[in-house]
Amino acid sequence: MKLLIAFSPLIVLIFFQEQISCFYLAKSASSGYYQDGDFVIGGLFSLRMTLGGHLKPKILFKDKTDTLDVVHVDLTRHYQHILAIVFAIENINKDPHILFNMSLGFYLFNVNFIETKAMESSMGLLSGESPPIPNYTCRPEKTDKLVAVIGGISTSISTQISRVLSLYNIPQISYAPFDQSLGTSVQLQSPYQFPVHNVALYQGIIQLLLYFTWVWVGLVVPDDMRGELFLRDITEEMTNHGLCVAFAEKVTEFSATKSVNLKHFMERVTLTGVIVAFGDTHDFLISVYLSIYYAPFGNIWITTSDWYITLPIEQNRVYRHFGGGLLFSFHMDEILGFKDFLRSVQPRKYPHDIFIQDVWSILFECPYFDKDGVRELSQCEPNGSLSTRPLHAWDMNTSPSSYKVHAAVYAIAQALHEELSLRVEGDSLDKSVLRPPLPWKLHPFLQNSQLGRSSNEKNVVNKEVSATKLDIFNYQSLQSGTKAQVKVGEFVFESHSVQHLSLNDKLITWGEHHNQIWINVSSVLKISIRINRGISVFLKLWYFCPMKILWELFWSPWPLVYLPFQP
């Protein structure tokens, strides 16, 4: 008894210390967006990129070293990813048969593009607060309901999330582009990913180049495994079809400290009229700024995402450089009712959404102020609609990432339904029986879904697809002055022997500032004396593709090649 009395103050002290620690975190933390439910899905999203301080790239130009100012990039269009999970959960909760009359909730964080913040928020999902205390549960009413997590937007962010969640065997579904290296870069379990049929993408780009007889093409890819694989595969395909790789440039992510040689970058872009860029916004932040502020007009960009539209740069400047660009996007069926849902979204409809105030303030250019710790918007349109916002700030069409997030919610709900079904006895719907399952119990059901993991990469990537359809969009300035992505064609791929490119030339506009001239190759030597670097271009063509040049000169029915004309 004495021993108990002697130690009792210590026990009490430890107890209060734990309570105080969690209370202190709750006061200082940047909390997420939480909605309660019988089961909770975590979400880690990225709404902002920051380039500044030690992250600023050093630009080498004219023997001088300049540094870009701090750049804050608010990706308001990424807020659609959060709305996709909210929309899916609202619909699931309306159907009593999916989860046996039980409800789904969510716990959402914005990790921006910061890896340490991704790890911190992952631990926040486990402890119930952020910043968290590892291995402590401060809010068991939240954490005990967690069944799976959706996130993140890139391989690097997904990896850091997985390093935390895999320790506790919690399912993670990444909505980043499929990356074969994700499984090897994570110590324990790799996240579930949405498989893609990249062969169709390569073939679609190749057929487009052949359609316009663009034989001298530059390639720009992110400096990671995804970029490396794309470069390897498309270079092989281009060679097989007699197309020439003018240059292959690997660019670092926006957060990299590696220097960018602007002079070298400009020379390559200037000498190449057509450029294929494979990647997303976070891959090309630096490259877009370099192209817009230092490179000349006149290039035609073929891309796999609309990264050039999303940046908060003066849009007329963006259009002068990227107007007329062509975008390949995997075809997706429209999510039924999602556009109507987006039109109905307003801050007053979701008062607990901690992200909507910032997004609304940017989209509608109205400030907000803090009143008793609560943010309130001022001077905003009372009935403002997302459907009225310009393309670079908001897109009413479902983005590929939003489509994945929506599908991920339904995959988790289906896994929950199947797991709960095993515990339902007859018509019994006793909620004590249907309490949240341990997260790891969902793995067998998720593995039977359409999702894949890098450990199963061969089965995922090489899975036969009956037909893959890609939509082709053209970045245009409409007569009303607004900028839009207009569908101008599609590419359907079934096999290497069965594929079809459909393109409506009349719908394509190449942009008002494209300095294009179709030059007969037989006249290149006569004209090149008066063209800056013209001889260099011709010699490179001859060096890399001599047979293609001879074919163009003597046998081609229309001996044309696209070159930038700069007298």
Automatic annotation (TrEMBL):
One of its GO terms (molecular function) is G protein-coupled receptor activity. Residues 1-22 form the signal peptide. GO terms for cellular component: membrane. Keywords: Glycoprotein, Membrane, Receptor, Signal, Transmembrane, Transmembrane helix. It comes from Mus musculus. The lineage of its organism: Eukaryota, Metazoa, Chordata, Craniata, Vertebrata. This is Parathyroid cell calcium-sensing receptor. Pfam families: ANF_receptor. It is found in: Membrane.
